[in-house]
Every structure is written in structure tokens, then in C-alpha cells.
């Protein structure tokens, strides 16, 4: 069946009630239907292959996989793209119609439908990221409480660990034991958070060792365990991107632009796409610039005429393009490789 003859269905998902919108390709009749969660998949079981659009949100990956198993084509649309097509008051019916309109637009990139394995890796990353935030909040909270009693510790986790024991001993001479015991328990919690973060990193390392794509891109300078596993899981199918530049643009590593009357002005990086992966790439690029002994001609020339942060983002952009090239063309990393523009 040709893609142009497929019935296009816009689906606004929710926890319990799903709203559908579609137009019959033969009669042109417009339909709007509400379904309970238990009846959603049953509605599509005996349908001819459809193009189903959904907003990329919580649970959408699960439904996309289930619908693909039935033979349907599924596109997950970014929320910002769908919002542009809501022309009236926001409600489930209007949202389903907006998704139906958005999924038919040319040039709009859909979010990759991920396998359960890829989504599991991203879940590990999200939990690790949350634990790191908890650890930072816990450290800052302890510093603030100690500062209320005249105990000021230098910045950094190591400095906090060095000064915490002596600070508690000094405070124990004049403060209630209930407070000292609680502060000591909160300090001990930092060690438990450290252990949980390490265990997650060990599981990610075990996954990377058995995943060929992650091992391949981990050879790129600046791409470590976190970046390699997150890039493979976030990207999905590398061939869904036409070029490395398109992948870098999807991550928000290319300049935003504004212009009118034929004059275009380039701004800072657009910061679109996945914030987490973009941050990992930029941190990796910064590590390369700080620790590499032979930065190479390209980096040296760029560093002479551009500020350090611009050089860092430019290197992160190059790393993203290299990741795409290795995965899209099934190649190994070669530090001596020279790209040749196709004739």
C-alpha cells in the first residue's frame, strides 16, 4: 500500500482516555473518537496499515512499539511541533487534530522509536542523573546547615568529607545530640548515593561491552562510557539522519539564525534537541581540550581566532558528526581518516 493512500490517524494519548482523529481516504469523512486505554490497541488490530502520529511524551514509546508490531507506521512528533497546529482552545479533540496535521507535514523530524533495550539504557541514565542531583543537593544542604553555626567548608566534595568529621565534633560540644546525630546520618547518605551511582555505571559498562555500536564510538576522544551509551540509545537508527550535520543540528549544536530580506544573522547554538546528550558531548570536548597533548592543526587554528567556549562547542559538533558517520556507515574510528567531499 502506498504511503499516500494510508489512513492518517492523530492520537492524543493520556493515562486512561485516548482521543483519535482521522479522515476516511475514500469518503473524506472526518472522525473523532475517544477510547479507553484497554480498548486502544483493539481498535487498530484489524485495521489496514495506517500512519499513526502521536506526541512524544510519557508512554508513547511503548504504544509506538505495540502499533508497529501490528504493521502500522508510527511517527512520534515533538511537542513544540504539535503546538503550532493547535488553532483554538486546547483540549483533547484539538490536540488530536493538531497531531494529525503535524504528522503530515514535510520536513518535520519525528522522534526515533526506540527498542526496549535502548529505552532501558536511557532509564539507567535518567536514574543516575537524578541521583547525582540528589547528591549535590545533599552536599549543599549540609554546607548551609553547618554555616548557620559558624562552620564553613571549602567548595568540593573532598573538602566536605575532610572537614565534616571535625566540624561535627566541635558542634557536639554545644548543640543537642539529636541534631548532631541527624547531621551525621545525612552525611552518611552521601556515601550511599555514591554506591548507587557506581552500581549504575557498572551496569552501563556491562551493557557497553556487549554492544558493538557503543564500543565503536567509545574510541572517539572525548566519548566515554556515559556519552557512548547515551548516544546509541538516544539516536535509535543512525540512518534516520541524512548526514552528520543533521544529527548535530538535532542535538542543538549548530547556530540558531534569524534573518529577513535575504540577510541572515547567525546566533549562538540553538540548544534544541536532547539537552542531556548535548551536555555530555560538550563536557567531553572540554576534557579533550584540557588534557590532550597534541590537539591537532584544526583545533590549534580554531583556537587562535575563536574564544575557548566556541572552540569547545565546535569540537562537540565534530564529535557528534563523527558518531553519526561511524554508526551510519558501520566503520571503526580512525584518527588519521580524512573526509573527502563526494563528487
Written description of the protein model:
The protein has 343 residues and is an alpha/beta fold. It has three domains: 100 residues, Nucleotidyltransferase, domain 5 (2-Layer Sandwich); 94 residues; 117 residues, no CATH class. Helices cover 53% and strands 12% of the residues. The chain has 13 helices and seven strands. Strands 3-2-1-4-5 form a five-stranded mixed beta sheet. The protein has a two-stranded antiparallel sheet with strand order 6-7. β4, α2 and β5 form a beta-alpha-beta unit. The protein is globular. The mean pLDDT is 90.
Write the layout of secondary structure elements.
Layout: E1 8-12, E2 17-23, E3 30-36, H1 40-44, E4 51-55, H2 60-69, E5 73-77, H3 79-83, H4 92-102, H5 116-147, H6 157-172, H7 177-209, H8 212-217, H9 225-235, H10 244-250, E6 255-260, E7 263-269, H11 275-291, H12 297-305, H13 308-328
Helix content: 40-55%
Count of helical stretches = 13
Please summarize the sheet with the most strands.
5 strands, mixed
Beta content: 5-15%
Radius of gyration: 25 Å
List the strand order in the largest sheet.
3-2-1-4-5
Instruction: Give the H and E element order.
Output: EEEHEHEHHHHHHHHEEHHH
Mean pLDDT, nearest integer?
90
User: Which blocks of ≥5 consecutive residues have pLDDT under 50?
Assistant: none
Instruction: Tell me, briefly, the overall form.
Output: globular
Count of individual beta strands? 7
Helical/strand content category? alpha/beta
Amino- and carboxy-terminal Cα gap? 36 Å
Quaternary: single chain
How many separate structural domains?
Answer: 3
Amino acid at each position: 500500500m502506498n504511503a499516500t493512500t494510508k489512513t492518517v490517524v492523530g492520537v492524543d494519548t493520556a493515562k486512561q482516555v485516548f482521543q483519535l482523529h482521522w479522515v476516511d481516504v475514500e469518503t473524506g469523512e472526518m472522525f473523532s473518537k475517544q477510547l479507553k486505554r484497554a480498548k486502544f490497541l483493539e481498535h487498530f488490530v484489524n485495521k489496514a496499515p495506517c500512519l499513526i502520529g502521536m506526541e512524544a511524551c510519557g508512554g508513547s514509546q511503548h504504544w509506538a512499539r505495540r502499533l508497529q508490531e501490528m504493521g502500522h507506521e508510527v511517527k512520534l512528533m515533538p511537542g513544540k511541533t504539535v503546538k503550532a497546529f493547535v488553532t483554538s482552545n486546547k483540549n483533547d479533540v484539538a490536540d488530536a487534530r493538531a497531531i494529525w496535521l503535524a504528522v503530515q507535514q514535510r520536513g518535520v523530524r519525528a522522534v526515533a522509536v526506540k527498542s526496549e533495550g535502548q529505552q532501558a539504557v536511557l532509564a539507567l541514565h535518567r536514574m543516575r542523573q537524578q541521583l547525582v542531583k540528589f547528591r549535590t543537593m545533599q552536599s549543599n544542604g549540609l554546607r548551609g546547615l553547618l554555616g548557620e553555626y559558624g562552620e564553613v567548608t571549602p567548595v568540593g566534595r573532598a573538602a566536605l568529607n575532610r572537614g565534616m568529621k571535625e566540624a561535627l565534633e566541635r558542634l557536639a560540644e554545644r548543640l543537642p545530640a539529636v541534631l548532631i546525630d541527624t547531621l551525621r546520618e545525612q552525611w552518611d547518605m552521601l556515601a550511599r548515593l555514591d554506591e548507587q551511582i557506581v552500581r549504575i555505571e557498572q551496569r552501563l559498562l556491562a551493557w557497553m561491552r556487549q554492544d558493538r555500536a557503543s564500543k565503536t564510538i567509545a574510541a572517539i576522544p572525548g566519548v566515554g562510557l556515559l556519552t557512548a551509551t547515551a548516544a546509541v540509545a538516544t539516536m535509535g537508527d543512525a540512518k534516520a539522519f541524512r548526514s552528520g550535520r543533521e544529527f548535530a543540528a538535532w542535538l542543538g549544536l549548530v547556530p540558531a539564525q534569524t534573518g529577513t530580506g535575504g540577510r541572515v544573522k547567525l546566533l549562538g547554538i540553538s540548544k534544541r534537541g536532547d539537552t542531556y546528550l548535548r551536555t555530555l558531548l560538550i563536557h567531553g570536548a572540554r576534557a579533550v581540550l584540557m588534557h590532550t597533548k597534541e590537539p591537532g592543526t584544526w583545533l590549534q587554528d580554531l583556537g587562535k581566532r575563536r574564544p575557548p567556549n566556541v572552540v569547545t562547542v565546535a569540537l562537540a559538533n565534530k564529535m557528534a558528526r563523527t558518531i553519526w558517520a561511524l554508526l551510519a556507515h558501520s566503520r571503526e574510528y580512525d584518527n588519521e581518516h580524512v573526509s573527502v567531499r563526494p563528487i
